[in-house]
Amino acid sequence: MSASTGSACRLFLSLGEPVAAPGAAHGWVQITSRTLPDSGVAVVSNTGPVVPKYEIPGIFAPFRRLDGDRLATTPGAGLGLSIVQAVTRAHGGEVHAEPREGGGLIVTVTLPGAGSPQRC
């Protein structure tokens, strides 16, 4: 993918943070990637609360949290997915999210250009 190493790492960390948060001991995140002739694609699946399909268009807004996640004891400010979208767009890419059956999300990030794989 053509994103700089630092911003690409931030993008994936933002997708995985809710699973690594305290109280998410049984959560998981899976990241798969593939290189296409003109782009790189990463798919991030994670566990979490059930996300109704009608909530998907708004989940990339800054400070957006699901109604059940507004407790003071729940960490985070609701910026993770807005960061993912901003970094993806800054690199000319696209991001798409869909609810994962049983809870959580499947987020697909496509960035133009294909380069050497990089480690975070």
Number of strands: 4
What characteristic shape results from the CA principal axes?
globular
Number of helices: 2
Q: What distance separates the N and C termini? A: 13 Å
Question: What fraction of the residues are assigned to beta strands by DSSP?
Answer: 25-35%
Helix content: 10-25%
Radius of gyration computed on alpha carbons: 14 Å
Largest sheet: 4 strands, antiparallel
Uncertain runs are 69-73
| SS content category | alpha+beta
Summarize model confidence as the mean pLDDT.
76
Order of the strands making up the biggest sheet? 1-2-4-3
H/E element order: HEEHEE
Name the descriptors.
single chain; 120 residues; alpha+beta; 4-stranded antiparallel sheet; 4 strands; 22% helix; globular
Care to give the gist of this entry?
With 120 residues, the protein is of the alpha+beta class.
Describe this structure in words.
The chain is of the alpha+beta class. Helix content is 22%, strand content 25%. A hairpin with a 5-residue loop joins β3 and β4 (105-112). α1 (5-20) runs antiparallel to α2 (80-90). The longest helix is centred in the N-terminal third of the chain and has 16 residues, at 5-20. The model is unreliable at 69-73 (pLDDT under 50).
How does the SSE layout of this entry go?
Blueprint: H1 5-20, E1 29-36, E2 39-46, H2 80-90, E3 94-99, E4 105-112
Antiparallel strand pairs: 1-2, 2-4, 3-4
